[in-house]
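Internal QA ticket QA-208
Title: Verify multi-chain structure generation after dependency bump
Assignee: T.L.

Test input:
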Amino acid sequence: MLAFIGRRLLVAIPTILLISVFVFLLQQLLPGDPILAMAGEERDPATIEFLREKYGLNDPLPVQYFKWIGGVIQGDLGISLRTNQPVSELLLQKLPVTIQLAVMALIFAVVIGVPAGILSAVKKGTVVDYAANVVALSGLSIPNFWLGIMLILLVSVKWGLLPASGYTPPGEDLVRSITTMLMPAFVLGTALAATLMRHTRSAMLGVLKSDYVRTARAKGLYERRVILRHAFRNALVPIVTLTALLFGELVAGAVLTEQIFTIPGFGKLVVDAVFNRDYAVVQGIVLCTAVGFIVMNLLADAAYFALNPRLRKS
Amino acid sequence: MLRKLSLTAILLGATAVGAQAQDLRIALQSDADVLDPDQSRTFVGRIVYTALCDKLVDITPELDLIPQLATDWSWNDDQTELTMQLREGVTFHDGEPFNAEAVAYNINRSQTLEESRRKSEVASITGTEVTGEYEIKISLAQPDATLLAQFADRAGMMISPAAAEEAGADFGLNPVCSGPFAFDNRVAQDRIVLTKFDDYWNADEINFDSVTYLPIPDNTVRFANLQSGDVDIIDRLAATDLEQAESASDIEVASAVSLGYQGMTINVGNGDRADSPIGENPAVRQALSLAIDRNALNQVVFNGAFAPGNQSFPPNSPWYDQDHPIPERDVEAAKALLAEAGFEDGVTVEVQAPNSPVPQQVMQVVQAMAAEAGITIEITSKEFATMLQDQSAGDYMASQVGWSGRVDPDGNIHQFMTTGGGINDSGYSNPEVDELLNNARTTTDTAERKQYYDQARDILVEDLPIIYLYHQTWIWGLRDAVSGFTPYPDGMIRLEGVSLED
Amino acid sequence: MAHVSDPATADSVLDAKPENRVWKKFRSHRSAMLGVFLVAFFVIIAVAAPILPIQDPTATSWSAVRAAPSAAHPFGTDEIGRDVLSRLIWGAQASLMAGVVSVAIALCFGVPLGIAAGYFGGWTDTVISRCTEALLAAPFLILAIALAAFLGPSLGNAMIAIGLSATPIFIRLTRGQVIAVAAEDYVESAHAIGLPTRKILTRYIFPNVLPPVLVQATLTVATAIIAEASLSFLGLGQQPPAPSWGSMLNTAKNFLNQAPWMALWPGIAIFLVVLGFNLLGDGLRDALDPRET
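Actual output:
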């Protein structure tokens, strides 16, 4: 197990390098000139040339890349073209925000999605199953922005219950921080809950028909015990993979949710950075999310081993 | 006893004032860029500067220039020397004194800082001479009618020389100016917080302890924040939300027609892509202009809240040429023009438009209107950075763009219409127009300038390198607790005299 | 229902050939048939749009901008006075294509790569998995804008972009499932008796991989339909004034206060199609599941 994790961590380094090269090249393919946007109405060629030089955009591509990666090794991620802030400072500012959103959303997703999935699998073909499905699918097919704006109009404007948008750091005011994040986390969570519910249902259906569940039933165990102890435990394998995959959906979903609720997190940072062609910021974010993905995938694979006794043996 | 009572009253009063002193929350449409007046370029950045950095001169809502840090000024006879008297007793947020040396430093920085985006705005200045602690003489190469208006904007914002010297190009991370509020902190895309500067020369007019700017790009969400009372003032309320805002009991609305314009820039001479029917043929451009019902456009997309337009200046501007009123839509005349130019079967125009809802809506309306005159418009939506590059590189046929506008008319026309002008993406070049616009720039007599602009307009309405469509109206939404707010056509939010009564 | 408890039917199911058995099970699946009906309904509408007696989806009317539903416009009009009903019907084409084609692209790449990674393991797995991670880590937006610049704006290229960005999830899902199945006793015995790899893959691995992949595919259809909307605003998807449900919704969000019908109808349409595909997926899943009798 430890050897496995160690091997994976070793492979992670080239993976991250691969990702950084990939995104670096992809960015070069983007149309649009960041300097032109930065220069604004000042189109003095000398100024534009100076800015290009200052941000190293005149160097050949490999030089640009190695300068950047060299900086990264020393902990310097460059500075934002738009605000001149150091990228590392920006990332540190934004990371906790998105983590808070993601964790709260995941809680919503698991609390709604997993029980609903178990219930609809156990009660397959009944009204309960259909209802759970319809609710889950609405969660999936209602676009985030629609649900988000509707919630803002209803909960904040009409009832005045929660802050309409924005972000408050937990250190500043914990209660307000959580209440501000409730609606966005719910919006992000519902879409994930739908995915989670559907997969839980599918996995549970498979397991419920398997021999050991039949055996457990035959032994006369209580149904609740059969379902939770035997069936659900085995259905967990695909559910855990999926939760790791959901990390990707979380990040993608956070992009939209953060836009709607004006939450200054990773998602909003990356969108604005891409649109402003703020290369250093985009690179920094990608590096960060790449590490996140790798860690999540590693955890998911480790969970396979932990949850699947047969794999553990071999 | 009486004394004791009054003392208590004073103390109570003091606490009451202390308790009243509040934070004003303003929601902006987007996040500002770097907060260095010499380096920044965004419109919202200028809104923040209004509270952060005082300028040499300011404007009235009627666009008259009034003193701010300069209390008085005068020109020499041939208009090449500007002498300014400066306000005494002003200090920067870091305690450094404001004086003629500081002004000289600032002008020099705008001209020589390599990152400066102000160079063209102060290009006419050849030198400064400190003629007293509070008097400075600015020499020009030739008369420049635009200079004072530039001093009413970013080029006239005074930053602390000591702080600027220390921070260099990184000044924007921690700006130090002399405005009513000092920089406190900034979280990119979340907030910019300014706190009251106690030593401000006009501190009596300032009624807040702090002001927080929150960028909220989505129109609906920004408005929702106002409705729920989470913010006190919002920038750019959507025209389509106006009706609802006006009918709400706890919301006030203020508006002013902007100084800018929105229109379609046609590529008439910027590279190969200018070789198109619409690029080569003024008649086609005239036909397109005639095919558009500008009033209907305004009604459909903006509920009639904006101002239809056909020139670089809005119809309510003193610079607007009344001899060329907004043309009535005339589809037959448009078809006739096309036929005359040899396009009986119609023409196709590819228009690039920014990928945000309002421009898309505008272009689709124009598309439908033009189709009736036989002009097929193909809309290509592009995100802004791409569009900007394609436009400056001449890789477009027509482009839907706007301009936020400047106080001096020159800022709305010169760099767009003169040969080789800074933002002349259209590639338009006409020596006659060049001469007229250059004359208008170097003439300080208003009536004479107006004549030059009118003469240029006579040519431009025929050539139409830009087909103007409408002028945005700045609409601010305010909680009814906010009072003393004055709408300005430059779209700024000036906080002098504004107060919050809760 | 899916459980066929009636012994007589069960016998006939068991007697049939595998293909027939699957089809019979599917036919008897009531909710799956509802799914078929829903999907078919929208497909027919999309195909028949040109011959249906509806208004021109691009015809504007300045006197009826954001007009509420009425006899002339049963679903109301949009922000520039176009008939929402006819835009909805014409938009079905773009949206169904965006949903189905991009998922098909993702499946074509994702499933074989996932099987290869999971079954062969070792270097194959390492290379595929690491590339997957790279693709997952690249923000969708960058990918989309770069593709838009390269391929030029069109609905087809939007599908490619969406399909590519949905591929990693299928690779990961398939791989995970294959690893789990490959460790089962019957696969190990199949190895032991020397069954060729191809047979093991088709007979044992693939059928077990299919259920979760189908579920995910039907879910991704929904995401893809909605993703098309954001892409059309980047200049990659359906170009104005041609309609798609996604772009209709995207515009409608600015008028939720004033013209809720603009968001309502495309919202309902997306919901029904997504429901249809998911019910269909469920039915297929049950019918293909070898364990289910």
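Spot checks passed. Chain A touches chain B through 47 residues (CB under 8 Å).
Status: verified.
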